[in-house]
Amino acid sequence: MKARVTIMLKDGVLDPQGEAIRHALGGLGHKDVAGVRQGKLIELDLTATDPEAARAEVARMCEGLLANTVIEKYSIEIA
Amino acid sequence: MKARVTIMLKDGVLDPQGEAIRHALGGLGHKDVAGVRQGKLIELDLTATDPEAARAEVARMCEGLLANTVIEKYSIEIA
């Protein structure tokens, strides 16, 4: 079973990396970019077979290691 | 218009960062993780209004700056 975790900075948290990308894109002539936010994507191969149990386990991974929940939000897709 | 770019290492390219995450998860007791791949997620706010033109523009951004197409693959969602 595969899980895909998306981790982004919470709204309102400054994203200097995204801002650097926006600036670089502007320098390359992409002037119609109003904003950029950068996040992380983590794909997990799980041996679990129950989707609900897998989602709960991945949520524990996010809370414990993958995301900094003070400033980041995460979402989980199970496939 | 929003665009979401997903950038992952190509299959077959070693992902030491993903492997480090897998190892750390194992150390925290998450033993049922068979593999981890880490990628990037970039959300773009575009002033463009035509979805097809926006997709083509974002593809140019990926080829020119956002992705290293020698070792990375990207996918684009327009919303």
What report would you give on this structure?
2 copies of one chain form a homodimer. The model of chain A has no long low-confidence stretch (mean pLDDT 96). Chain A has a single domain (2-78), classed as Mth169, Chain: A (2-Layer Sandwich). Chain A has a 3-stranded antiparallel β-sheet with strand order 2-1-3. Chain A contains 2 helices and 3 strands. Chain A has 79 residues and is an alpha+beta fold. Helix content of chain A is 35%, strand content 37%. The N and C termini of chain A lie close together (6 Å). The first copy, chain A, is elongated and about 50 Å long. Chains A and B meet through strand 1, helix 1, strand 2 and helix 2 of A and strand 1, helix 1, strand 2 and helix 2 of B. Strand 2 of chain A pairs antiparallel with strand 2 (33-46) of chain B, so a sheet runs across the interface.
Looking at this protein, list some descriptive labels.
EC 6.3.5.3 (chains A, B), homodimer, purine biosynthesis (chains A, B), 2 helices, 79 residues, three-stranded antiparallel β-sheet, 3 strands, Mth169, Chain: A, PurS (chains A, B)
Q: How would you concisely characterize the structure shown here?
A:
With 79 residues, chain A is of the alpha+beta class. Chain A is built from 2 helices and 3 strands, in the order E-H-E-H-E.
